[in-house]
Amino acid sequence: MPIERIKTGIPGMDEILHGGIPKRNVVLLSGGPGTGKSIFGQQYIYHGLLNGEPGVFVALEEHPVQVRINMSQFGWDVRKYEERGLFAMVDAFTGGIGEAAKRERYVVRDPTDVMNLVDVLKEAIRDVGAVRGVIDSVSTLYLTKPAVARNIVMQLKRVLSGLGVTSILVSQVSVTERGFGGPGVEHAADGIIRLDLDEIGGELKRSLIVWKMRGTSHSMRRHPFEITDKGIIVYPNKVLKVTRAGVFEEHV
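Above: the chain sequence. Below: its structure as tokens.
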């Protein structure tokens, strides 16, 4: 049987994944600050909405109002999909504090309470019939308690995968860290996509690499990407090679 896949909607990314993300996979999207993790997740969600695939976005790092503003700057207006019951924004940032928060439908009263988050997430997924999910960022849930990181990701995975959602969990790492965002977290995820921003020869270069993706083959090379006013564009026919002498792009 052919693998059921979810298209990322990010130009060039599906070629690297040999057709898209296998359905129900939970993918860790890892990277340092400024690498484009949030944009990647938002673009993934919006592409689904454009193609009749409802989605849920969990805002842990930013106010939901700001997330909507950020998305609209790329032309991704999610409000109309919220009104039609096809998209849910889960507010796990404000704790219900503030006037704007009172207008949010899905509010996690205590963002540090994972079970509270899971309950609200389940409700949102069921209400909209979500096919896609993004949590930005999952690191917020265990930054102060790394020992429970794997357990938290496993709880989220059971809910998301169990309800048929193909998900991206944004994972923060420091600029110098070459890992994926916490002990055991990378083993709990079905896939890992690493975004990098490296200073080479006085210039910042963006690149990504798929470290693993359960259920499919994928490119094993590091590919350059750009953030444009329409979102992320990945170049599957280019490989970014870093040598001691500098950096160069090779066409494949």
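The domain at 5-251 is CATH 3.40.50.300 (Rossmann fold).
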